[in-house]
Design goal:
alpha/beta, 10 strands, 8-stranded mixed sheet, 7 helices
Length: about 250
């Protein structure tokens, strides 16, 4: 039985999506980026995510979303969770954006994916990992048995990196990491696939009425992402703590 992990970013609960932000940019303008009302946020946690204050699950509240990878690695190392596990990623962004071509993509496709799966986490170079791409690294390390993304209604599917999908088709319903010749990746023309990872079932939802958790999650992470959220949304940090046992 696979464990189930709920990975949430505060920026999902805003009226619109911010793009291309840096930590130095500070918080969003709360007159433009407006968070959900607290009752609506609580209803989502209860009715959509099946979170219960009387049945708290283990979890963590973090500042930057890249910390999710460290949390997963910690749980795996401590034997609290076994990979692969199911993940539901609720966010305004996919967190798969390695860019193309850049050093993160070059590393993933040209180096990491050439290493046998059972060695990748131990040999992982995190130098280019960040909050925009940590999920791609987690997939490449074999963390997940199933990936469900619940994205902001304004998200555009064409921003998904096609190269991470089976047949390079985002509508294939499967993620499939592939290793390529490093030179081909460097010049942006990977053609000959050297190695395929196993396919991972993938589902994307951009209408919350089509998302309803089946059963209970085992763990939850909630991220603030300060450069992508206004201070007026920080009430969610305290609310989520009512539903978790912080570890």
């Amino acid at each position: 039985m696979f464990s189930k992990f709920l990975d949430i970013d505060m920026d999902f609960f805003l009226n619109k999506i911010a793009w291309g932000r840096q930590a130095s940019d500070g918080r969003l303008d709360e007159d433009i980026y407006i968070p959900w009302k607290e009752p609506d946020f609580r209803t989502f946690l209860k009715d959509k995510c099946n979170l219960r204050k009387e049945l708290k699950i283990k979890g963590r509240v973090v500042k930057d979303h890249v910390e999710a990878f460290d949390f997963w690695e910690e749980l795996i190392d401590d034997g609290q969770i076994e990979a692969p596990f199911q993940v539901t990623h609720i966010d305004a962004h996919t967190d798969l954006q390695t860019g193309y071509p850049n050093t993160a993509m070059l590393y993933l496709l040209g180096e990491l994916l050439h290493i046998p799966l059972n060695r990748r986490l131990n040999e992982l170079n995190k130098e280019q990992m960040n909050s925009a791409n940590y999920l791609a690294y987690a997939i490449a390390c074999g963390f997940f048995s199933n990936v469900e993304m619940v994205l902001h209604p304004d998200y555009e599917n064409e921003n998904l990196p096609t190269i991470f999908f089976s047949n390079c088709d985002v509508n294939s319903s499967f993620l499939e990491m592939k290793a390529y010749d490093k030179t081909q990746v460097r010049y942006g023309t990977p053609k000959e696939t050297i190695k395929f990872d196993n396919k991972i079932p993938f589902k994307i939802v951009t209408d919350t009425k089509h998302y309803n958790a089946k059963g209970q999650y085992d763990y939850v992470l909630f991220c603030q992402s300060p450069e992508y959220t206004p201070q007026s949304a920080d009430f969610t940090l305290e609310v989520i703590k009512e539903y978790i046992i912080e570890i």
